Amino acid sequence: RARLAPRPAALARLRAEGPRIVLSASSALLLERLDGVLRSSGLEALRARPLIVASARIAARAAELGYGEVHVARGADSAAILS
User: Model pTM greater than 0.85?
Assistant: First the structure.
């Protein structure tokens, strides 16, 4: 759970291409950190993209943060999130 700053090259790719989906793998803390990076990096528009979260609790937090299209995966592991 160490806080890592995104590399400038990764932020540049997001600005140029933008992913179709923003993923929050497994925790509300991760979601909040992702949200902070998007806001502080001028990438707020990505908050309108579909967001996949691992639980209903994280989905509720996403709604509180203003994410509109939130999908709950069957679990927190990579296979569940990707499916």
Answer: no
